[in-house]
Amino acid sequence: MTAKVLILMGSDSDWEVMSEARKSLQEMGVESDVHVSSAHRTPERTAALAREAAGRGIRVIICGAGAAAHLSGVVAAESPLPVLGVPLASSDLSGLDALLATAQMPSGVPVGTLAIGKAGARNAGLLAARILALSDPEVAAKVREQRARMSQEVEAKDEALQKRLRGE
User: Fold this and answer.
1) Angle at CA 102, nearest 5°, toward 26 and 49?
2) Please, what is the angle between helix 118-133 and helix 137-165, to 10°?
3) Could you read off the pLDDT tens digit of each residue along the chain, which spans 168 residues?
4) 124: enclosing H helix or E strand
5) Which residue of 4, 18, 23, 59 shows the fewest CB atoms closer than 10 Å?
6) Is 146 part of any domain?
7) Domain CATH for 20
8) What total number of domains does the chain contain?
9) DSSP assignment, residue 136?
10) How many Å apart are CA 138 and CA 119, to the nearest integer?
11) Is 111 left (phi over 0), alpha (psi -120 to 50) or beta?
């Protein structure tokens, strides 16, 4: 199966967080490629990965970066594909710097910005799956199943709470 999503991160230390994106994609039956590539330390490599992604069958790119967090913007400048940015808490500012850098892209260079950290990485994978679901019925079915499971889990939790409140 060919990868449909490219996950990039600026450092291998980001994998602990960014692995959540890959896990959520796997739950949706979506293959992904994962690479470490820095906007600052390997700019040519990063640009090449972004430029070549569409030709390799990639449909969505997820980038995770902390501090100045330029990775998403550099990739969005080099690729016509949708880019989802996950700000990482890798500095003394706990990810706020990365959030602002990822969200405040100049006009014409869009980056979909997710939450800081693991929740953001997980949601980036789920959002990528929803984008793919627009043209892939199998992924669309997995997305519907995941949403139904979430609903059932919430209803079960409420039922358990109601029983506790009734003293059962």
Assistant:
1) 55
2) 130
3) 689 999 999 999 999 999 999 999 999 999 999 999 999 999 999 999 999 999 999 999 999 999 888 999 999 999 999 999 999 998 889 999 999 999 999 999 999 999 999 999 999 999 999 999 999 999 999 999 999 999 999 999 999 999 999 998
4) helix 118-133
5) 23
6) no
7) 3.40.50.1970
8) 1
9) -
10) 24
11) beta
Distances in Å between the Cα of 10 and the Cα atoms of 15, 58, 144, 150 are 10, 19, 32, 32
Q: How far apart are CA 39 and CA 43, in angstroms?
A: 5
User: 141's torsion region: left (phi>0), alpha (psi -120 to 50) or beta?
Assistant: alpha
Which tokens is 93 given?
A: 């500012």
Is the separation of the CB atoms in 76 and 112 below 8 Å?
no
Whether residue 154 is contained in a domain is answered as no
The kind and range of the H/E element at 159 are helix 137-165
Amino acid at 98: A
**Residue 145 within a domain:** no
What is the extent of the structural domain holding 120? 5-136
Task: Quote the CA–CA distance of 66 and 71 in Å, as a whole number.
Answer: 9
